[in-house]
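Thread title: Can someone regenerate the structure for this chain?

I was given the following input by a collaborator and told the matching structure tokens would be attached. They weren't. Posting the sequence so someone can regenerate them.
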Amino acid sequence: MIRIAIDAMGGDFGPEPIIEGVTQALDEKTFLPILVGDREQILQHLPQYYLEQVEIVESTDVIAMSESATKALKRKESSIYKAVELVREKHADAVVSAGHSGATMALATLRIGRLPHISKPALATLMPSLSRNGKTLLLDVGAVTDCTAKNLYEFAIMGEVYAQKVLGLRNPSVGLLSNGEEESKGNALTKEAFKLLQDVPGFKGNVEGSDIFDGSVDVVVCDGYTGNIVLKASEGVVKTIFTLMKDQIRKSIPAKFGALLMRKKVFTKLKKKVDYAEYGGAPLLGVNGCAIISHGKSNSKAIKNAIFQAITYSDSNVNSAIEKLLTEQNK
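Best answer:
Regenerated them for you:
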């Protein structure tokens, strides 16, 4: 049975939505959740029916969102430290946290460790697109702000394997984010990386920002600084568009009737496509285990889907496939 260590205290809203997400996941799939946190608070929110289906690991400390990630290694009683240690000690197959993302990434990298041929891990996220499967994998989105060409090459390998094993794409295409499609475009980093990525099986060349969303590529690779800006800008655009639509609908009676008619067929589907809760969290690719990092504002649905993602990841042998491909490429 897959064992998932869950930081029950992480997140902006405390343990309630996290535990609710765990119970929702238990209703749909078989796995063993290991809840890490304040036992008393956990039991306050955990229905008695689920008591025999979970394990609880006591933790007396929580790393707040406002605190520095560099202190995480010293906070051995924190919920995220103990959750990560369960994976390190092979008591759990994966860790899920909606807590301090920097602390989670640092602990996963340093305590669980990297895969043998990976120099730095990458945080990957799914972006909505017009492709048949409706999403594009973007990495890195914040784990490594200053990258080398070798880092980007490794990101491409990890992204391609993840798209195959987890997203179910047989021959995923991989693009390098640049300011133009021509090989001559880009900065010193992307030009150097372009040469290395030519050996990646699915590499199609440089792609532009719009290609992330138009369905022309399955995996997009960039440094964490650029990727995080793309991610936050995209979230802002989505929020702005929905706000503008609501404002315009309020000003017009015909628009109100039209919106009412389209509510279920159009707006509900559109919202589902761009809602982060549908994906649950971002996998930290390249660590010798599985770490899923969820949004601090995650609701129960997001936590449930983050757990599902951790289960799929653990079942798919992603890490061994990444190592195999890197060994074959011999870089």
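Residues 1-118+286-321 form a domain with the Isopropylmalate Dehydrogenase fold (CATH 3.40.718.10).
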